[in-house]
TrEMBL record:
Family in the record: Belongs to the PPase class C family. Prune subfamily.
InterPro entries the UniProt entry points to: DHHA2, DHHA2_dom_sf
Region (Disordered), start-end ranges: 137-163
The protein's name in its UniProt record: Exopolyphosphatase prune1
Gene3D superfamilies xref list: DHHA2 domain
Domain DHHA2: 1-101
Matches recorded under SMART domains: DHHA2
């Protein structure tokens, strides 16, 4: 349904321009009629070399294996995949994207001893790599050993969720006790604010 949107490319292009992104990777998840999870990936990038590098890294990843199957897309700047390994969440995908960006920017670096071209200097490539890496891990600790990844929502399939066992059982006593606690805290707050 996402790929069938009438003005999809224009919307993706506008989004990337508004946020100064060179590439956009989208991950979806839904449940089929058998209540099994289905994940999909889409890579939008108007730059052929960058899109190719990212797609190759994702397609050939073995740690973790994504088990990607290309899906048909009529848009040349958009590659879409069915992700066979549904346990790979965005947390596990992020290092693969960082690897893809490093590979892309490493391929752009000029070997030492070679004259630099006017189009791309070594300094520009290094700055772009730093900017891309920083935008991927912005807000994260710069711990050298193992930087923490952004938190995964509790509805993720890869983490234990308290709702896996169903909704919590509620009794009239539990509801009454909670209401009493709320009333007590509100009356305490109100009496303190009067003083």
């Amino acid at each position: 349904a996402f790929l069938q949107r009438s003005n999809l490319l224009a919307e993706l292009h506008a989004f990337c321009q508004a946020h100064s992104y060179d590439v956009l990777v989208a991950m979806t998840i839904f449940f089929n009629t058998q209540n099994e999870p289905v994940r999909q990936l889409a890579v939008f990038c108007p730059h052929v070399a960058l899109r190719t590098t990212i797609c190759e890294v994702l397609e050939h990843s073995q740690s973790p294996p994504l088990k990607l199957t290309p899906t048909s897309s009529i848009h040349p700047n958009l590659h879409a995949y069915l992700q066979g390994n549904t346990h790979v969440s965005r947390k596990k995908l992020l290092p693969l994207l960082q690897e893809a960006l490093s590979a892309y920017f490493d391929s752009m670096k000029i070997p030492s001893g070679q004259p630099e071209t006017v189009d791309v200097s070594r300094e520009q490539v290094d700055k772009e790599l730093d900017r891309a890496s920083n935008s991927l891990i912005s807000g994260l600790s710069q711990d050298e050993e193992d930087p923490p990844l952004p938190p995964t929502p509790m509805n993720s399939l890869v983490d234990e969720c308290p709702l896996d066992q169903g909704l919590p059982k509620l009794s009239a006593e539990a509801v009454f006790e909670k209401c009493s606690q709320i009333s007590l805290s509100q009356s305490t707050t109100a009496s303190l604010s009067k003083k």
